[in-house]
Amino acid sequence: MADNPKPTEVQKDIVVSLDYTLKVDGELIDSSEETGPIQFIQGNGEIIPGLEIKIEGMKMDETRDLRIAPGDAYGDLDPEAVIDVPLSDLPQDMPIEPGTEIEVRDEDGNSMDARILAVKSELVTLDFNHPLAGKELDFHVKVVGLRNSTEEERLHGHVHGDDNHHSHE
């Protein structure tokens, strides 16, 4: 069976290697500089929707500066995801101070991440929104690799690491 020709642009089912930096409000939040490029199958919902849409059609070594609106990234801030809980409900050995990220369990035992927003005498305000919810994301991206995905990768829904790249899953 003949292999498909090597892909020349980002399109559905192509494995994309992407170098990126992410800034929010002018502050560097994340970068592939230390971890190496991210790899994902385009059109598979592995990265935020706004980024997936805006890199469609990019060529090898092409760079773009992209601004992704909250609705196409981690969603808008949900005011109902900010709740006050009694201080006594939280583990005693945990540092209870604004900015601390904690993991809490609901009545059904499901684990959820929250961030402490404020501490009042007997109440702690927890924010269950994603830390980047409500934020515009400024990406600088560069396509550093394009290849056809394998049938197995498409079936499994994610990239299988090759010899020199390991998926960050």
What can you see in these coordinates?
- The chain has 169 residues and is mainly beta.
- It folds into two domains: 14-74 and 133-156, Roll (Chitinase A, domain 3), CATH 3.10.50.40; 79-127, Thrombin, subunit H.
- The protein contains two helices and nine strands.
- A hairpin with a 2-residue loop joins strand 1 and strand 2.
In short:
With 169 residues, the chain is mostly beta strands.
CATH architecture of the largest domain, by name, is Roll
CATH class of the largest domain equals: Alpha Beta
Structural class: mainly beta
Number of discrete domains: 2
Strand content: 35-45%
What is the terminal-to-terminal distance? Answer: 31 Å
Radius of gyration, whole Å: 20 Å
The helicity comes to under 10%
Which key terms come to mind for this protein?
mainly beta; Chitinase A, domain 3; Thrombin, subunit H; 4-stranded antiparallel β-sheet; elongated; disordered C terminus
How do the strands and helices of this protein lay out in sequence?
Layout: E1 14-24, E2 27-31, E3 38-41, H1 49-55, E4 63-68, E5 82-86, E6 101-105, E7 111-119, E8 123-127, E9 137-148, H2 151-156
Antiparallel strand pairs: 1-2, 1-3, 1-9, 4-9, 5-8, 6-7, 7-8
